[in-house]
Amino acid sequence: MRTLESKRGAFTLIELLVVIAIIAVLIGLLLPAVQKVREAAARAKCQNHLKQLGLAIHNYENANGFFPPSTISTGTSASQPWSLQAFILPHLEGDNIFRLIDFTAGYHSGPNLANYPPWGVATLRVPVLICPSDPNDRPRLNAAGQVEHYPLSYLANVGLYLVWNPLTGRDGGGAFGPNQRLTHAAYTDGLSNTVAMSEGKMFTPRVHDATLPTTPPATATSVAAATSGGAWSPVNGHTEWVCGRAIHTGFTTLFPPNTRVPYTVAGTTYDFNVTSSREGRNQTDPTYAVIPARSYHSGGVNALLLDGSVRFVRDTIAPATWQATGTRAGQEILGNDW
């Protein structure tokens, strides 16, 4: 008897190509799903950060009898005004950092440098202030390559366009303002109809100390033409969580979320923010600002309302509706898109 040996044939080239093609198609189908799941998780974590910030704001109000100011402006050229985000640290499990801050001195002076040499508490990363979807989670370095500041993603609503007029003491009518001690009675629009905080992109191009008109630009594309002078940086906006000036820790509601504001420098067009005289720079010049809420979430931004709730606001929201949610006492009627 002869033993028959079964022979196993090898895969042909065509068969291998078919298998590779099938695997490629499966990967192509799976990747978008994985990315969607990842983004959904990041958006949920971002919303949770905002909820924590909302609780901290209300705990601050419970402890002090008023909501935190966006900053405390002393009106001196050498001042470094602290931010709302710094004021609420004790209510964000950040009491250890808070105890190391001397609020009577600037964040880059005196004991505030000594506690964390060479550049002080301003260099610390505060996780709850950073959106997980932002790809620029890194410190800001100075010219010597030293860590000088750490950026943030969550910004305070400081009004439509005017932020602060030191001559009159008038703020922008937003949820928060410089030197303001606002109680519940100040929010006649209702806490659930007033946006407290929203998102910004770290390392946003910016111009500060520019000359801006007293009336708001009509369109985002007209902002650049209305801007003259000022200090330009392609990367420095929203990079100082300690700083109470709107160019770093605030946003305005003149334009809807993720509105592109074009500004061209040396042939390159940037999406930028702009303010006139920074709050606290002097005692005479008002601060106007165009600082839209922005995020890396597809289609909109997360927003914290002053009642502590968080919602996703789409880019398609009507400008009038978004502006109405940015006031605390405007008595506007919100549109059906809210």
Q: What is shown here, in short?
A:
The protein has 338 residues and is α+β, with helices and mostly antiparallel strands. It has helices at residues 13-64, 84-87, 95-98, 111-114, 223-226, 246-249, 319-325; strands spanning 140-141, 147-149, 154-157, 162-165, 170-171, 195-199, 204-208, 231-237, 250-251, 262-265, 268-271, 273-275, 287-290, 300-305, 310-314.
Secondary structure elements and pairings:
Blueprint: H1 13-64, H2 84-87, H3 95-98, H4 111-114, E1 140-141, E2 147-149, E3 154-157, E4 162-165, E5 170-171, E6 195-199, E7 204-208, H5 223-226, E8 231-237, H6 246-249, E9 250-251, E10 262-265, E11 268-271, E12 273-275, E13 287-290, E14 300-305, E15 310-314, H7 319-325
Parallel strand pairs: 3-9, 7-12
Antiparallel strand pairs: 1-2, 3-6, 4-5, 4-13, 6-14, 7-8, 10-11, 12-13, 14-15
